[in-house]
Amino acid sequence: MTPSARPARIGILTVSDRASSGGYADASGPAMHAVLAEILASPWEAVARTVPDGVESVRDALIRLVDDAHCDLVLTTGGTGPAPRDLTPEGTEAACDRMMPGFGELMRRRGLDQVPTAILSRQTAGLRGKALIVNCPGRPSSIRVSLLAVFPAIPYCLDLIGAARIETDPAVVQAFRPT
Ligand SMILES: Nc1ncnc2c1ncn2[C@@H]1O[C@H](COP(=O)(O)OP(=O)(O)OP(=O)(O)O)[C@@H](O)[C@H]1O
Ligand SMILES: Nc1nc2c(c(=O)[nH]1)N[C@H]1C(S)=C(S)[C@@H](COP(=O)(O)O)O[C@H]1N2
């Protein structure tokens, strides 16, 4: 099957000690699913997982989502801040072959329009094989801002790495593919 003929597989990884232990219901994973449903105009399927904070927990979950579940794109939420157990960027880097620092830069910049504490997120992005991994902050309200900031560049990034072809709803996100 050619990459464009199959639905994109998108991993949604919630990283939170409390959401993973039942301390509160995960609102960020469902928020991410809802924003993706709004943005995407081509077929896709979600693979949702929740793990506690930690370098190994995040690294191992990302490796499973890419290598075993064959995700084209994995979005994480939570664990990007300065608190001692906020280790999602380190787990992401451990799972990636190459980093894509522009994603974090742009999400922080757009986040500043929402809250002055956007700079406290160390959110980053990187590539593992034919998959793109992007971190978002944990607060449910930060998800839409973060994804709308970077999504215009995601379809072309997936093209370049040989992942599934995705299309966006232009009324929500104008994907940019240089001609
Ligand atoms: N997955 C989630 N579902 C619902 N609310 C969340 C989630 N992640 C974060 N939040 C909310 O955003 C706030 C700040 O997020 P942050 O990642 O700092 O949480 P946290 O206190 O570190 O969570 P934890 O200790 O469980 O990992 C939390 O206190 C919570 O109110
Ligand atoms: N757009 C946006 N970015 C944001 C926030 C937010 O509310 N909106 N919260 C900030 C805060 S308060 C923190 S501590 C960091 C890290 O959050 P995390 O540890 O939940 O990932 O994200 C920041 N980025």
Q: Per CATH, what is the topology? A: Molybdenum Cofactor Biosythetic Enzyme, Chain A
Unreliable stretches, pLDDT < 50, 5 or more residues? Answer: none
User: Which CATH C-level class is it?
Assistant: Alpha Beta
Shape: globular
Major β-sheet strand ordering:
2-1-3-6-5-4
Report the average pLDDT across residues: 97
Structural class: alpha/beta
Radius of gyration: 15 Å
DSSP helix count? 7
Number of strands: 6
**How much of the polypeptide forms β-strand, as a percent range?**
15-25%
Estimate percent helicity: 25-40%
CATH homologous superfamily?
MoaB/Mog-like domain
**N to C succession of SSEs:** EHHEHEHEHEEHH
Q: How many distinct domains? A: 1
- Assign the CATH architecture: 3-Layer(aba) Sandwich
Sheet of most strands: 6 strands, mixed
Catalytic activity: molybdopterin + ATP + H(+) = adenylyl-molybdopterin + diphosphate
Keywords: ATP-binding, Molybdenum cofactor biosynthesis, Nucleotide-binding, Nucleotidyltransferase, Transferase
EC number: 2.7.7.75
Function: Catalyzes the adenylation of molybdopterin as part of the biosynthesis of the molybdenum-cofactor.
